[in-house]
Each structure stands twice: as structure tokens, then as C-alpha cells.
Amino acid sequence: MLTNLPIVLVALLTVQQNAKGTADNVVPHGEWTGACTLSGELNKLQKRGAHRLTAATGAVTSYIRQYLKTHIFFEKSNSGIYTPAQEALLQYYAEKTNEALSSVADDKVLKTATAIRDAGAAAAAIGGFIRTLDQIAASGTHSCLEATAGANSAKTKDPLGSAPAAGCEEDPGDLTAVDTATPSLTGGGYSAPNYDEDKSASSNGVGTAKCVFTKAKASNHMLNPAAGDQNIAGDPHYAGGLFFLDTAGLKRRKLDNAAALAAGSLILKRGLLASGHIDQTPQNFEAKKPSQLTADAAFQAIFKRIVLKETTTPGLQGPDLVTASKKPWVTTPTPTTIMEVTSPKCKYPS
After folding, report:
1. Which pLDDT value is given to residue 172?
2. More confident residue, 254 or 77
3. Which DSSP category does 171 fall into?
4. 339-347: long-range contacts at Cβ-Cβ below 8 A with a sequence spacing of 24 or more?
5. How far apart are CA 168 and CA 317, in angstroms?
6. CATH tag, 19-52+107-278
7. ∠ CA 346-349-350 to the nearest 5 degrees?
8. What is the largest CA-CA distance in the chain?
9. Cα(282)–Cα(132) distance, rounded to whole angstroms?
10. Which of 21, 176, 220, 299 has the lowest CB atom count within 10 Å?
């Protein structure tokens, strides 16, 4: 009996060691910091979406105000009698208002709002997962995140709620309208280096940092932890589908083609595709000077139609158009030219 005691002790110690969950390896430093970088880009995308909405509504408001100011000014100064050039200018602002209104149509606003929501959901999922792994640490001896690239070293936890790396903040603050570029978000995926293939997200180096979250689905200690002999039948996905548990351990999805992402990664898929719904250039209000109006194709077309009575677009352009417009107008008060419409003597409102 006594001769068998060492064998029994070894068996008991083996079971005890497995029960502690010190099974496999950490998420490499480059992988989890890269995830935070992606989360940060998605947060920037939300701000750009907010900028698109505020810019569009601002343009509508400004063009309506400009139309009304111009209309009131001409009404007061000319007692309700407009020159053809003044009618052309009013028509120009009316058409610019309609253009701006089209950018805030219900379908476009909803599409942009949905894109902001999708980018925010993906960013929150990624940041939440990394912050959770950051808290699973044992005072620098064991952890789920690698502290230093390539060392398989245990990372000490950060204070609860703080960001382990930029982009993984728990509270990104109120949404602001900032036209921030996100060149790595292509509208069809994510173009950062090494994201063109599924990649292992568990380090195989020798060290103290070990984490059961990254262990392969076979004999994973998340089920029946004392024995560790249960295979995980499902396909666990984390961080909105950025990471997934594979037969060989934790892996990170390829993201260069977001449309190819399937079930389990749909939150991330929608977040990446959101860029394509936000990147439309918003229409901005422009208060143009007379010299700028003469070069404006839209105003030229209106001026030809109303003032020169042309029904086709080909004809005079630029300086020639201004010269032609200086001919006297029968029974109409001044101003009569494009340049005079906004001249200082008319005290045109700014």
C-alpha cells in the first residue's frame, strides 16, 4: 500500500493543478492592443457619422435663412418688383435648399443613425471583452493578457473601468460631431496589417501568464473544471465576433472582407460595414460672393433660364455670361447684373 502512495499523490496533484485553470496561454500583446485600436477607430466612425448629420441639418437651416433674408431684402428694397437677376438669385437659393433637404430625407438619416449604432455596438463589444480579460489576473503571476510582446508575461490588472489600451475606454463620453478620418475602415472591411487571415490569438511562449479562456475547445476547463475532460460543442465568439474559440485555441477573425463574416461575428460585421454608410460627403452651406456665383454651374443655368431666357444649357459661360447680363432691362429697376445683385450699394444682407 505504501509503495503506491507516491503514484496516488501525483494523480491528486495533477487533478488539483487542472482544477485551478492554469491551462494554456494568454492573448498576445499585439492582438489585444490591436483590438483596442480597432475599437478606437469605430468610436471615431461614430463621431464622423454625427458630423454628417449635423452638417446636413446645418446646411438646410442656413440655406432656408439665406433664402428668407434675400427675399425680405428684395421685397423691402424694390417694393415687390424683382429684376430677373434677383429672381434668379432667389431661385438659386430655393434649389440649394431643396438639395440640402434631400440629404436629410428619412431614409438617409435612418441609414446614418443605424451606422452610428452599429459602430458603437461593435466598439463596446470589443472594449468590454478586453477589459474583462484584463481583470482576470493574479497580481502579476497569471493573467489572460500578455504584458509585453513576445514574452508571455503576466499583465497586472488596471483599475476597474480604466482602459488597458487606448480605444478600450469604458466610457467614451458624449458623442461629438467630428469629421475624423479612419483610413483603415474601408467601407468593406478593416485594412490594418495582419487582418487578412484568421490568426491565432493565444501565445505559445513559455512563461507564467496562462488563461483558460484561450484553451482549445477539447478538454477545456470551462466545463467540468475539476476534470477538464469536456469538449465544448458550440462555437463561442467574443468581442462582437472578433475572437472565437477554435479546436486549436482562441483565434482572431480576418477582417479585410466584412461581408464574408458569418453568424457569431454579425455585430462586428455591421460595425465594419457602417463606414460605407457614413462616408458620403455632406452638403455644406456656402455664402458665395458675386464673382463666385458667376462660376457656379447651378447659378449659371438658372441665370440663363430666367434672365437670358435660354432653354438649353449650352451657351455663354463665365465672364461672357456677365458681359451679356449687363444689357439694359426694359421697365425693370436696378440691379440687373449678376455682379450688381450682391454689390455694396445694394446693401445685400450677409
Report:
1. 87
2. 254
3. -
4. 339/290, 339/291, 339/294, 340/85, 341/85, 341/86, 341/88, 341/89, 341/290, 341/293, 342/89, 342/289, 342/290, 342/293, 343/290, 346/77, 347/73, 347/77
5. 55
6. 3.90.150.10
7. 125
8. 126
9. 38
10. 176
Q: Which of the two residues, 100 and 229, has the higher pLDDT score?
A: 100
Residues 6+ positions from 345 with CB-CB distance below 8 Å: none
Judged by DSSP in three states, 21 sits in coil
What was the pLDDT predicted at 250?
93
Domain boundaries, the chain: 19-52+107-278
H-only helix segments in the chain = 5-19, 29-78, 84-102, 106-135, 266-278, 290-293, 297-306, 318-324, 338-341
Written in H, E and C, the secondary structure of 177-246 is CCCCCCCCECCCCECCCCCCCCEECCCCCCCCCCCHHHCCCCCCCCCCCCCCCCCCCCCCEEHHHCEEEE
Side chain identity at residue 342, one-letter code: T
- Global pTM reads 0.78
Residues 6 or more apart in contact with residue 258 via CB below 8 angstroms? 188, 189, 190, 268, 269, 272, 273
Cell of 311: 432653354
304-338 pLDDT tens trace: 999 988 765 444 444 444 444 433 323 334 444 44
What integer pLDDT is reported at residue 328 of this predicted model?
34
Give strand pairing partners of 252. 199, 243
The H or E element that residue 249 is part of is: strand 249-252
> Model confidence at 281, in pLDDT bands (50, 70, 90)?
confident
pLDDT at 313: 45
